[in-house]
Amino acid sequence: MMSSSLLWAVDVYGRVYSLSTAGGRWERSKDKVLELKRVTAVKQCCWGIGCDSQLYLNVNPSDVAIRYQEETYENQRWNPLDGFTDSMLPTDRWPWTDEAGLNPQPLHSFQLPSESWEWEGDWFVHDESCGRPSTNTGGWEYAVDFPASFSKDKKWNSCVRRRRWLRNRRYKALGLWSKIPLDRGWPPPQPFTDISCGGHLMGNSSKKHLYLWAVSQQGKVWFRSGIQHLRPEGCRWEEVAVPGEVAQMSCGPGDLLWTVLWDGQLLVRTGVSCEQPKGSSWTVVEPPKKNMGAALVSVGVYVVWAVTKDNKVWFRRGVNSHNPCGSRWINISGEMVSVSVGPNDQVWGIGSEDRTIYFRQGVTASQVTGTGWIPVHAQWDSSRPAEGHPSHDYRGRMTDSSQGSVLGLEESLGGPDCPIPKATIPKITSDSFISALVSDRECTIRPVGSKPLPTVPAEDQDQAQDQDQDQEADGGDEEVLSSLSEIPSKATGVDPWSNVDLEEEAKGKPPAGPGEAAAQRASVATYSLELPEVEERPPWAWVSGGGCVFTSDSRIGWLESSEDKTSSLSLAITPAHASAEKKKEASEEQIFEKSVSVTKGRLRWWRDWQPHQWEDVGIALEQARTERGRREDILYLYYKHNDEKKFLCTPMSDVTALVPKIRESLYCFAIYTSERTRQRWPLLLSTLTQQDLQQWLSLLGESCCHSKGIVGKPSEQALWAVTSKGDIMVHEPAPSLEAPTSSPACDHMFWYQVPGHLHTVECNSLGVVWGIGYDGTAWVYTGHRGGSVEGSGDHQRPLADVRSIFIYENQRWNPLAGYTDKGLPMDRHMWSDASGLRECTKASTKPPSPQWTWETDWAVDHSAPEGSDKEGWQYAADFTAAYTGNKTLKDFVRRRRWIRKCRIQLTGPWEEVPPIPLSDITILPCLAKSSMEQVPLWAISERGDILCRLGVTRDNPAGSSWLHVGTDQPFCSISIGGGHQVWAIARDNSVFYRGSVSAQNPAGDCWYHIPSPPKQNLKQLSVGRTSVYAVDENGNLWYRHGVTPSYPQGTVWELISNNVSKVTVGPLDQVWIIAEKVPGCPSESPGTVCHRVGVQPMQPKGQSWDFGIGGGWMYLSVRGNALEAQRAPARSPQPPRAQRQVNGNIIAC
To answer: Across residues 953-962, what is the average pLDDT?
Structure first.
């Protein structure tokens, strides 16, 4: 159970009140004469500035008394005549000093710091041997000389001795306001206008200190140090230089310190730490509004709130001990004259209209701005609410008939057994009564639980007065008033009177019995509106929540909803008030439109510079919802470099991709921005568990999509890609992506992840998306993004994939032992990967990521492409030469491949298409507005058979059945383009064209052989509307000339570029590739997305390459993007784009 704490407040008359979290009443300070202007509090104490500009302190009562022990040492030296005396040598210390002997401290020099202290007893000698005042030994310690070590034993060479004297003093002013005296020996500071205490949560040390900051009338800043539990008043004041005149300042519980200058500018103190509590320098922060300076600032642990001079409330985003200045301001609905932030970042405020204390509801560690303002419903005593008017009894008292007022005969009678209805509020119609209520206080009086009343326009007030005058003109009222005037006044004064709706009052109080009811029918009832002399709620001038400690789930009685509480009086008696109240409620509903939430965590960050290692860092995602529902999310990373706090920040709107990575069997992911994409330098983070990785990827991915306005499933025009890890990435293209000129750069493209694991993915503009897993299983996309966004859990299906991991056992021949694992010094590792550059043993080889689990054990692989003998060995003259399955006399090395399969289990928006395993797939790329009954889809099975899928439509993307297309050899790559052009590559690298393919004849008739480029073996191709591109085994990209509707086979191949692993051609003949060996990308994870710029109908080969995201991208499909750029009128030529490629060779990024 959390201990109680106090909320402090000051009214406009300087009276100080405190409100306990364990109670429900405002308690006024015991010192009735004391008047304060401002207070600042922590849980242990409260500081205040009096109207005399002096400083006052109130230490909260505690079960443990505050005692401070003064000490001094008595020193003596031995001489042959007198023995031990206080006669010292000229070089000795004083007879009475501190322990070090550097400062004289005679007993009479000790004085009480202030009147708040009192001595407990006299001085006594402390005997350290027994831990209590000395009795027999006298407490002396002996040594050869004063700088030497002292001991209890007296020896023959003990020439000096000392003993410790102690005296205790106790702080007696607990729960009382005491004046802080001037520091002795120090120049007095100037009169103060503002104070703020904090810093008690700074650092991780168990020994906490409290620091007090103050602002003088001349705008100077003062710092008070030495405030501890045993020294609540502190030691002395020190002036801190500041570039300007300070008007107000706020110190948080941690290391945050903000100030407001008289011109409305804000200053932030940087370099604040436990070792340097005063900080090192000031940094200027612009106010929230340029034409409206700041009036007040309040600081918490991780938050900063401010109020501008027009009473608008603002929240500072991105504030942290690593980034004390924050990033930007966001406006919070509501108007306050002041705000105060508590130790758990809870927020209090004083309304600008009604001067009521409000609490910011819904503030948590993640929802830092809360949800709305609610008034504090506390009481002055056990029965009277604080945030309303005094609970006077305005109900009329029934009197006997001799008092002369008349009740209507139409009222129904009630018997003694009738239930007593609830009291109702009489309708007040007299302006004089309201004037009497508010004559002594210039504040608005509200009922408990009601919202603050707005100011009534003058024209509405005039209308209300006219209505009241019309009611008072009724002649019946004159008789009632004349009867009431005969009633004698009380001794305390004349009772104020008001016209009361008697019909409503009669409903509120039934007669006591038949006799009294009969008297009512023919008698007079008088309603006494006596006002007892009780104090009204004062308008608040200042509030301090720094000492009010509770959590978001704590139940505080005076912060709970008060809808069930009723008030005995409402001043909203005119239509003008009701109209203004509705406007006020409408404006208060806007509070929920702007908010900031923060998600924090601890991750590991790979530092790419010295010392090149993983480091524990703090990470925070700040999600802000601004006006019109826009999202402005920022990701912060906090770290230390050379013991200096630093941070990195990235707006989520600048993030271009969140990509899971394979890194040392860790749960890693990379964050790309456009700048980091150009530099090939992503931000690499890792988590402790796979669950944490998925949660952060989901959270960050959702934030990116919302920041960029991407909601729902991928569009039919989306670009699809697969990374080397098997993750599926999607990009939503803009219409200008394929513009002939001024197309957006590829490094600005945003990619987001779709759950699943694939090796190949293909799409088209009708929304048909197919994929192939590593095990050859075909999958069709079910039409949803997946993940946690948009509640897509119902669209998830189980998804599994199996992948083979290969390692190589290498041996070298020698004349003595034959083939052994003893190689030459320059040879590769005897167990390695295919390249031989990395050592891979059976024990050290792990699955691709922790998501994978081994499914089989290691076994010799007899299905190597180059062939092998019966034991799986392949032979070559050297490790870098070509391998064969047959041994010759010149083969001095051999290797064999080992295989082990692993499995991954996921869920995603994919449906399996059984039963034939596939190796390649292609879908007809069509224009965006195309309509066809069936979508042509071709595939190649793992055995090399060519298949055509029937029944594929927009509504049934999985199709119905496979149609086998006859071939005389196995194939490895296939692509279908505009006009149902089907091109394919056989495993012997020969190229074929399928003739007579149409919607009526989906399988075509026959194959036409197409010559390959000279001395080159093609391995993959892609066909667009009129263009055909292919990639050979050496990574060269080729373009087929002369492809026309009348001669679709084309004429000749032309080399376009090198270092290409995959090519994809879209429905607009746009060309994209996966490039290899791009400068800046790591060699162990090649693969960069590149776009061919300048492709036009008259220039289908384009002009140059534009480089996008890279490092581990394996497959790309743009065959769904049929968005054509809007044609614009001719304009002046644009400046040329930066040349990044020489036609034919990729040279830079």
So the answer is: 94
Distant-in-sequence, close-in-space partners of 351: CB < 8 Å, separation ≥ 6: 334, 335, 336, 337, 358, 373, 452
Give the model's confidence band at 204: pLDDT under 50 very low, under 70 low, under 90 confident, else very high: confident
Nearest C-alpha neighbor of 856 from the set 929, 950, 930, 775: 775
* β-bridge mates for residue 594, sequence order: none
| Residues 1064/1118, Cβ–Cβ less than 8 Å | yes
Contact call for residues 1060 and 1031 (beta carbons, < 8 A) = yes
Domains of the chain are 17-63+175-375 (2.130.10.30), 67-171 (no CATH), 595-707 (2.30.29.30), 719-796+909-1125+1135-1146 (2.120.10.30), 804-904 (no CATH)
Q: Which of 1125, 1121, 730, 731 is nearest to 927 (CA)?
A: 1121
Interatomic CA distance for residues 225 and 463, integer angstroms: 61
Query: Is residue 470 helix, strand or coil?
Result: helix
For residue 1023, report the phi and psi dihedrals to the nearest 5 degrees. Answer: -115, 130
- Residue 822, Cβ density class (10 Å: 0-12 exposed, 13-18 middle, ≥19 buried): exposed
CB 593 within 8 A of CB 629: yes
Distance CA 868, CA 884 (A): 7
d(CA 935, CA 976): 11
Identity of residue 303: V
List of residues 6+ apart from 341 with CB closer than 8 A: 250, 252, 298, 299, 300, 303, 304, 305, 347, 348, 545, 546
User: How far is residue 167 from each of residues 65, 183, 1139, measured CA to CA in Å?
Assistant: 16, 22, 84
Number of C-alpha atoms within 13 angstroms, CB side, residue 973? 21
| Cis amide leading into 532 (omega within 30) | no
pTM: 0.74
Element of type H or E holding 435? helix 431-438
* pLDDT tens digits, one per residue of 651-670: 999 999 999 887 766 889 99
Structure tokens belonging to residue 158: 């003990």
Cα dist. 378→387, 433, 449 in Å?
Answer: 7, 26, 11
Contact 280, 644 (CB under 8 A): no
- pLDDT of residue 223 exceeding 90, the answer is yes
Q: Which residue has the tokens 């439109």?
A: 593
pLDDT of residue 132: 54
CB atoms within 10 A of CB 434: 15
CA 145 from chain centre, in angstroms, equals 63
Return d(Cα 650, Cα 633) in angstroms, integer.
Answer: 9
Quick check: helix, strand or coil at residue 720? strand
For residue 819 the two structure tokens come to 């083939």
Whether residue 1113 contacts residue 724, with contact meaning beta carbons closer than 8 Å, is answered with yes
Round to whole Å and give the CA distance between 824 and 429.
110
Please give the full DSSP string across 1065-1111, using - where no structure is assigned: E-TT--EEEEESS-TTS-TTS--EEEEEET-BTTBTT-SEEEEEEES
The whole-angstrom separation of Cα 834 and Cα 1043 is 39
